[in-house]
Write a structure and sequence with these properties.
eight-stranded mixed beta sheet, alpha+beta, 308 residues
Length: 308
């Protein structure tokens, strides 16, 4: 009877766990090595079968994923956060085109703010802004327009605002530094390019659709809006303005804690303290008041503070 070949012992420190997990060896306590090898062909067939089953389950799951994508249409209107919610529009043409597209689909309101004096705004952009205002009112939208106080003295702007008010729109005036923005339906926010001015046109900007950011911008707009004065309450054409431009400039200097002498020197062209005193005396008499303390109290409350 031939002798069986001597059993080769595994190298010292070998770990059988991976072979056991694959099923390539089994425990054999009666053998010196403690394990016995299994047929690798059977092991391979079993592993291939397991992988096929796993692939089959994966394919079935992938087949169901489009149904989850479909649910996004129900989720979107109610989500409380947004993904990437802003897009840079590098040219004024793209910016105005996007505003026009958003306005065409608007359902409730258009809110705008124009912090720059009329003479510093591009005539083409001003024309587009007015066209948007008329379009919003023709669509039955609520339209609010917030202007820099310098706009009161601009005949072209005053004429447009008169028609806007007549058509049911609202306009207010403020001397505050309001950021330029366009808000449509509290869903679309258009702002200037405040990140970088490099390689950017003057009227380039950002289209923001993130719900939280647009809601915050709307709250900022409302804050400026309710602190501003109605256009019709300040319209010089109404003949109800008591103070002159020079008087208001002096009062702003006094409000900033300068004396009458200092205020006169800060004006352009400068005035003497005596001239400043005379100008303020004329205002005090026009108001029917007896002291400058009364005039300053009036100045703190009057809508004429918003006039240029």
């Amino acid at each position: 009877m031939p002798k069986s070949p001597p059993e080769a012992l595994p190298p010292e420190g070998w770990e059988p766990h991976r072979l056991l997990n694959l099923g390539l060896v089994e425990h054999a306590p009666h053998l010196p090595v403690g394990f016995i090898a299994c047929d690798p062909r059977a092991v391979a067939r079993r592993l291939i079968s397991a992988e096929h089953e796993l692939l089959d389950r994966t394919v079935r799951r992938l087949h169901r994923l489009p149904a989850l994508e479909f649910l996004a249409g129900h989720f979107e209107p109610h989500r409380m956060y947004s993904g990437p919610g802003s897009e840079f529009l590098p040219t004024g043409e793209e910016m105005n085109g996007r505003i026009g597209t958003a306005l065409a689909a608007a359902r409730s309101e258009l809110c705008t703010s124009q912090p720059a004096p009329p003479e510093k705004r591009d005539p083409t952009v001003r024309k587009l802004g007015r066209q948007r205002g008329r379009k919003a009112l023709s669509q039955g939208l609520t339209h609010r327009a917030l202007y820099n106080s310098a706009a009161l003295a601009d005949e072209d702007t005053a004429s447009y605002v008169a028609r806007l008010l007549e058509a049911g729109g609202e306009a207010r005036v403020t001397a505050a530094r309001v950021p330029r923005m366009v808000i449509i339906d509290s869903t679309h926010l258009f702002i200037d390019n405040v990140l970088s001015e490099e390689h950017s046109e003057p009227d380039a900007g950002w289209h923001v659709t993130d719900r939280a950011v647009v809601a915050w911008a709307r709250s900022v707009y409302d804050m400026f809006w309710w602190q501003a004065t109605r256009w019709q309450d300040l319209d010089p054409a109404a003949g109800e303005v008591t103070s002159t431009d020079l008087q208001r400039r002096i009062l702003r200097e006094l409000e900033a804690s300068y004396s009458q002498a200092q205020a006169g020197h800060r004006l352009t062209p400068p005035l003497s303290e005596r001239a400043v005193h005379k100008v303020l005396a004329e205002l005090r008499e026009a108001l029917g008041m007896k002291s400058m303390y009364q005039v300053m109290v009036w100045w703190g409350r009057t809508p004429e503070r918003e006039l240029p």
